[in-house]
C-alpha cells in the first residue's frame, strides 16, 4: 500500500537505501520530488523551507513504516504526504539523539523524533497523524555538506 510517484528503486543487496527525496520551498507549499538534494553543513537542504534553521536540517522516514501506516489507514500513502525530506527502504530510522548516519555524501546526526502534526490530517487524510505515531522518522542536523541521491546507501556510523 506504499505509493510512490517516482521511479521504483530496486534494493537487491538488502542494504538501506534512499528511495525518495522531497523538498518544499516554503511552509505549506506542495512537496517537490527530487532525484538529488544538496545539503549544507549547519544549514540544511538547499531550497527547502527549513534551510538555515538551527537543528531541523533533514527529516528521514522509513518506507517500511509508511507501508505500515498505509495498512492501518486502509489507503495508499505517498512519501510526500508526510512532508519528510528523505525516505529510505530496507530498515528502520534511528530515533535516539546523537546517532549518526551517513546518507550518500552527507553525515547527519539525529536530533529528535519527527512527531506527526495536524498537517498530516490534511496531507494524508483523516487519521494520518495517528497512523504515523511512532512511525514518523527522525529530525537530523547536517554535520557535513554534500549531495544525497535516490539510491544512495544509508549507514549508521560511530559518533
UniProtKB/TrEMBL annotation:
InterPro entries on file:
MoCF_Sase_C, MOSC_domain, Pyrv_Knase-like_insert_dom_sf
Q: Which SUPFAM superfamilies match?
A: PK beta-barrel domain-like (SSF50800)
- Taxonomic superkingdom: Bacteria
Q: Which Pfam families match?
A: MOSC
MOSC domain spans which residues?
32-157
Name the chain's protein.
Answer: MOSC domain-containing protein
Upper lineage? Bacteria, Bacillati, Actinomycetota, Actinomycetes, Propionibacteriales
